[in-house]
UniProtKB/TrEMBL annotation:
Sorted UniProt keywords: Signal
GO terms for cellular component: extracellular region
Keyword Endoplasmic reticulum in annotation: no
Region forming the signal peptide: 1-20
Organism from which the protein derives: Guyanagaster necrorhizus
One Pfam family matching this protein: HsbA
Domain of life (superkingdom): Eukaryota
InterPro entries cross-referenced by the UniProt entry: Cell_wall_mannoprotein_1
Entries under Gene3D superfamilies matching the protein: 1.20.1280.140
The keyword DNA-binding is assigned to this record: no
Designated name of the protein: Hydrophobic surface binding protein
Amino acid sequence: MVQIPTGLFLLLSVVTATSAIPTKRTVAQVEADIADIVTQVDALDSSINAFPATGGSLLAALAIHSSATTLISTLQTATTDTTATDAFSEDDGATILASVEAFEPTILDALTAIVAKEPAFEALPIGGIPALVLQDLQGLNSATGAFSDALIAKSPADLVDQADEIKTTIGNGFDTAIAAYSN
């Protein structure tokens, strides 16, 4: 039987215990995550708007899917980081809220455009693209909702109503887009 020296056992126990402790995040990390989200939202919006109303290609449709999956991943990371951050100060909360408000129109534009492009996705010679778009919309809606909830949970009380309003507006945009692809 192998004997582990007591000192080594204690060291291994401490290392194992500390590796299970979640890493604390900062407001600066949340702000960096939001900057990444802005980049990904812009990329998604651009790829949707670049898709033609007729005669689109499978490659262009897959570029939209790729942008959506990247954005979902970015939102999930931002949610994890936000959850691991202390409550926002008044100034930090206002800055973060303003950052989110700034890209809200781009999200709404992307959702409006994807609804308008639904017939073009249906017309592609390879089936299943509208189902893929629906899956992406559902994933984006879920990830956006989780991120919104994490931000709201960390926001100062006087900013919660405004943050809820943004969440509702974006959620309504997702509801409309999801309904368009659910038929």
